[in-house]
Amino acid sequence: MALSIVYGYTNTSWSMAYHAFTAFDGSTEHLVIQSVRLPRALIAAAVGASLAIAGAILQTLTKNPLASPDILGINAGAGFFVVVSLSLFGFNSSQAFALMAFIGSAVAVFLMFAISSAGREGMTPMKLTLAGAAIAAMFSSFTQGLLVLDEAALDQVLFWLAGSVQGRKLELLQGIIPYLAAGGTLALLLARKLNVLAMGEDVARGLGLKTGLIKLLSALAVVLLAGGSVAVAGPIGFIGIIIPHLAKKWIGTDHRWLLPFSGLLGAILLIAADIGARYVIMPQEVPVGVMTAVIGVPFFIYIARKGIGTK
């Protein structure tokens, strides 16, 4: 976060950053540090942590090492609702995008769990994964269709759809942070139950765990974490895939440690990606979602080939 505050297109130093908070003088450098880079660092940390924790929960629920908010349609649902709000209702403010993205994420999660729960067998990891993939494809197709019909909407929303923390105001994070905090707290409270659930559905039921309730509460945590993150920064991918595997490798599979450690690593990765995004084509910037994709795609292929986490 300190590196994110100091380095960027505007030339600043460590001493400038220090004095921006201790002896603010209204200079351009101090304004950039306080009003642009600090909110950006805080948002990247909050979003990275939330997406990583949501990914860890989804991988446990689905028993799929490739599960994450972007793969299971949560990001796609948020993007679709944002495009609908812009194309059909004319909303174009960051606050309106945030609200619609949060609603879209919640709808996607609800549909995923409702569809996967249908049938005599009830919810199973395979059905949950297939339902999420189908919802992701559906919302992505709807979004592309709307953007084809409304080119003006495409111009306005394209940068948001790529995922970015650039230009986000601290007020936007302040409006979403209660949801992220609630989701993170709920996830930590469910950590012991997730340990039991990870041993298998039958084992969990045999130990007296109310698996349906735990899955419902876990879904709520994912809505709060992933939905709030997408609302602030757009649909940033691959954080939820990469980080849980790194955390398991370094800290183990105990969710009491896995979830907070995933949050820490997720914050670090997204901040680092955002710093890199400033320098790739300077003076212009690459959306941070592009940077996470560059990092995440090779890792995604590696997981798919090796089957990490499936044994």
From TrEMBL:
GO terms for molecular function: transmembrane transporter activity. One of its GO terms (biological process) is siderophore-iron import into cell. The chain crosses the membrane at residues 41-59, 71-89, 96-116, 128-149, 170-191, 216-246, 258-280, 286-304. GO terms for cellular component: plasma membrane. It comes from the Bacteria. InterPro entries: ABC_BtuC-like, ABC_transptr_permease_BtuC. Keywords: Cell membrane, Membrane, Transmembrane, Transmembrane helix, Transport. Its main location: membrane. It holds the Pfam family FecCD. It is a multi-pass membrane protein. It is found in: Cell membrane. Belongs to the binding-protein-dependent transport system permease family. FecCD subfamily. This is Iron chelate uptake ABC transporter family permease subunit. It comes from Bacillus aerolatus. The lineage of its organism: Bacteria, Bacillati, Bacillota, Bacilli, Bacillales.
